[in-house]
């Protein structure tokens, strides 16, 4: 039998719970997911040491590949130079980075649209 708890259902439950818990300080679902899935490689604070990947402070609305002091792969540059990180482009990137920039160093792939959405919502809040 298929498990009754699909990932989106668990996520929806977590979102509801988060809303019920509702303090401004409570960590959002997106922030938790970011810490689980992205923080090993990406910092979000501007003054934090650069990780394996570029720092993501203010990434939503920013041009791709412009973090000072980070050496992007040639493949990343080729695939994304001149593009802006809209929520839609971020969604496509997280779904399959290799699709946008074949050969990029970012080893990650997220098939679950609800997880991608929650992470992108969180990224909108990091300035
Ligand atoms: C295993 C390490 C790793 C993980 C995990 C990872 N990334 Fe990355 N990410 C990278 C690397 C490395 C690059 C640079 C790619 C290149 O130069 O080819 C990158 C690039 C990016 C960029 C482009 C930034 C810019 O300056 O244009 C974004 C946005 C991004 N990652 C978001 C995320 C998010 C959100 C997650 C979690 C859902 C994530 N990444 C998970 C390693 C990782």
Question: What is the CATH class name?
Answer: Mainly Alpha
Briefly note the CATH topology name.
Answer: Cytochrome Bc1 Complex, Chain D, domain 2
Counted beta strands: 0
Spans where pLDDT lies below 50 across 5 or more residues: none
Could you walk me through the main structural features you see in this protein, from its secondary elements to its overall organization?
There is one protein chain. With 127 residues, the protein is an all-alpha fold. The model has no long low-confidence stretch (mean pLDDT 89). Helix 2 (29-37) packs across helix 6 (113-125) and helix 4 (87-95) packs across helix 6 (113-125). The chain has a single domain (29-125), classed as Cytochrome Bc1 Complex, Chain D, domain 2 (Orthogonal Bundle), CATH 1.10.760.10. The chain is built from six helices and no strands. The protein binds heme C (HEC). The site of heme C has 27 residues, from helix 3 and helix 4. Heme C is lined by residues 37-38, 40-42, 52-54, 56, 59, 64-65, 67, 72-73, 75-76, 85, 90, 93-94, 104-108, 119.
């Amino acid at each position: 039998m298929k498990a009754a708890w699909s990932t989106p259902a668990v996520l929806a439950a977590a979102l509801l719970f988060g809303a019920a818990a509702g303090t401004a300080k409570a960590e959002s679902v997106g922030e938790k997911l970011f810490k689980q899935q992205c923080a090993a490689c990406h910092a979000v604070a501007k003054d934090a040491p650069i990780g394996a990947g570029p720092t993501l402070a203010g990434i939503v609305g920013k041009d791709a590949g412009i973090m000072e002091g980070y050496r992007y792969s040639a493949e990343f540059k080729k695939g994304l130079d001149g593009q802006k990180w809209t929520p839609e482009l971020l969604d496509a990137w997280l779904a399959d980075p290799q699709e946008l920039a074949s050969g990029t160093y970012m080893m990650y792939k997220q098939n679950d649209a609800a997880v991608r959405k929650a992470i992108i919502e969180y990224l909108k809040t990091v300035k």
